Amino acid sequence: MSQHDIKVSKKQIANAILMPEIIKMINEGHTITLPLRGYSMRPFLEDGRDKVLLTAVNSIKKGDAVLAEVSEGHYVLHRIIAINGDNITLRGDGNIANEHCKRDDIKAFAAGFYRKGRATADSTSGRKWRIYSYIWTKLYPIRRYLLFIYRHLFV
User: Fold this and answer.
1) Secondary structure of residue 131 in the 3-state scheme
2) DSSP H helices in 1-54
3) DSSP letters spanning 57-81
């Protein structure tokens, strides 16, 4: 290897260590872009392929995609499906089961997603995301079958 060759490697850091630092930066006013890990937001967001644009939480509403700490050191990026006072119910788009947290456990808001290697993010306040969200959440009663088909035909 010459002095001009650079070897780049990826290093994975446990979420329990990385996420508190990310949240601290968001709380300081920074916007953070992170690669997605996991399959809970399939079929539209893929592990290792897509990225999320995280910002500070101003307010939350049903349908928002948020970063939440659902148990100590365990963070998820899921959609809010219900708000009952301080109690929040979340579900990943690729999941059947719900998860629960408190309002204070919502750590960041997903302002957008970089999908399929694109250089510009799809905004979660944009028409495309809102239409997708509306349709996909209405399909919840048959989601189990749609995800089965997706996993067996496309993955």
Assistant:
1) helix
2) 15-27
3) -S---TT-EEEEEEETTEEEEEEEE
